[in-house]
Write a structure and sequence with these properties.
The protein is mainly alpha-helical. The protein has seven helices and no strands.
Length: about 120
C-alpha cells in the first residue's frame, strides 16, 4: 500500500501479487490487485474483473469488491451492471459492522510480513 500511496503503481502491483501468491484465496489481496488494475484501466480491466469476481465467489458480502466491480462495469459501458454492483456495495456497507482499526492494521501487517518473508535473502 505504501508504493501505491507514493504513486508507484508498478511496485505496488508487484507487492500485491507477491502477497497473493503466498495466499491465493486471501480476499483482501484479490481486492487490492483488482482495485489497482481498475485504476490503471484499459487492458487491465478484464483481469481486474476476474480477480474481483473470484473474491466475490469466496466472500459475497465484501462491499469493496462489489464497488470496484461496479467501477469496471461503468468504465466498460455496462451501466445497468454497474448500478447493480454499486447498490450491492452500498447495502453491504450500510449493514457492515464497524471493524476495529487494529484488526485492519493487523491484516495488512500480515500481508507485509508475508511479502518480505518471501523475498530472497
Amino acid at each position: 500500500m505504501m508504493h501505491e500511496k507514493l504513486g508507484d503503481a508498478h511496485k505496488a502491483l508487484a507487492a500485491y501479487i507477491n502477497a497473493h501468491l503466498l495466499e491465493p484465496k486471501f480476499v483482501p489481496s484479490k481486492i487490492l490487485i483488482g482495485s489497482l488494475l481498475c485504476k490503471m484501466g484499459g487492458k487491465m480491466l478484464p483481469v481486474a474483473r476476474t480477480l474481483l469476481s473470484d473474491a466475490l465467489r469466496i466472500e459475497p458480502t465484501n462491499y469493496m469488491a462489489w464497488y470496484y466491480l461496479g467501477r469496471i462495469h461503468k468504465d466498460e459501458g455496462r451501466i445497468a451492471d454497474a448500478v447493480d454492483c454499486f447498490q450491492a456495495a452500498s447495502m453491504l456497507k450500510e449493514s457492515d459492522p464497524v471493524e476495529s482499526f487494529s484488526s485492519i492494521l493487523e491484516t495488512f501487517s500480515n500481508i507485509r510480513v508475508s511479502f518480505f518473508d518471501s523475498l530472497p535473502t
